[in-house]
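Example 3.2
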Amino acid sequence: MTDQPVPDFELPATSGKTFSTRNTGKPCVLYFYPKDNTPGCTAEGQQFRDLHAQFAKLGCAIYGVSRDSLKSHENFKAKMSFPFELLSDADEVACKAFDVIKMKNLYGKKVRGIERSTFVIDAKGILRREWRGVKVPGHAQEVLEFVKTIQKQLVM
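Structure, written as tokens:
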């Protein structure tokens, strides 16, 4: 999928906004996470929050994506002071487009869930990098370093 256009889709976002892959107009990071207010997802969001100003300086937007409702997202965003929008993918439109739904073990039971994954998309809607099966510690910094290395390509 890398170096290919991302599929067209729209998702409802926090703050009454709508996200569309057709008109981002600038590079962005889409990070998919399993569930609001869980330890790993909170830690990941906090890392992106803490680096948000550096991403913004590079002209790169950040969006968190999960299957949670907008109401859950609004509460999570406010509680964690996230300066970026969260996207609700209740119908799994983006999850299917990026193939992030996987069978996982939860307390010995098989469940369908989001595999923690991150995607960097340039201003023209081309996928530039993907990370799958992400481990949270240091991940947001790794994404930032990648964005820095290709910043000139991202904005073209």
